[in-house]
User: What shape does this take?
Amino acid sequence: MEKKIDFTGRLTSGKKIRAGFIGCGSHSFRNVYPAFQFCDVDLVAVCDLDAEKAEAFCRQFGAQRSYGDYHEMLAKETLDAVFVVVGYSKRPVYPAIALDCLRAGVNVWIEKPPASSCAEIEALQEAARETGKTVGVGLKKMFFPANEKAMEIMQSEDFGHPSLASIQYPQYVPTAEEFDAYLHTDAEVPAVRWFLDHLCHPASLMVALFGMPKTLYYERSAAGAGSAVFTYESGVVVNLMLTHGASSNGGMERTMIVSDRGRHIVVDNNIRVEYHRNASLPYGASPSYYAGDTSEATAVWEPEFSLGQLYNKGLFLLGYYNEIQEFASALLEKRPLKKGTLAQAWQVTRIFEKFAEGSGRLLVF
Assistant: This one.
């Protein structure tokens, strides 16, 4: 056991994973490195192509050593895991880096998008099986506390069975020509690169809620917005609204899950969760709207922002703590990941590949 600081700032004891980090960029600086102070992660070494920047990150976040070459870090350090958060200009470089980590005998956590094809994910799955190591993927929408609460309600006996869902996310849908250029040339196609990157968010939420869909049909507007309908073997239908062009002020996302027994769940702006239930109001025969007891009324959960609570910090609201702690806990407990798995990364990537087949026709998974 080693000394660590708990949520209240008290000194306690427990186990941590010894971790290295590849990448010293804006996203990791704001969201991933800072989450380590709350997670069971001991940051040992930091690496970036810019060695001077790696040294600065090393000092800033309390690591012991910095490197300009991750191969050197893997060779010299004794690590349980490596976190990889790097940029890319054409295709994600995570598969190659993750393979190097696995072959060095180290578990690895990679940011999204994990890859540009299912074949790359399958190669990682094979390497993970051969080495006996774990690969976690930063599919943070699965770990948002608001989405986790929605899933808990959806799986309750009171809710019944889900029948319909609507997921709203502000994303441009590439044209057929843009998809073709990305898939069949070595060109830089920003529209598809960003679609691959951002589709991970609503697609991973859909996969977490309902699993892998059976079919997809979508249409794209002339301005680049789109509406996609997914069907499931279970009978659930999901409408994914890609609201490119909408305002980014006042909440960009909204999820609604409808049951088969007079209930629905709404998640607004990734923060506010509402559980709506039918009270007993006979049509035309009730003089008062205020019928039913509290077990039949709408329930609402929403964080307050007056106090310095953990739950109202972005590191917690946006799932960063949950996804990193799940990875660390799985390694310490020697168990498989519950969420953020390579299997789920494959499913999300497969959804991207289906979109690339084109709009206006039924696509079967």
Observations:
- The first strand starts at residue 2 and ends at 5.
- Residues 190-210 form the longest helix (21 residues).
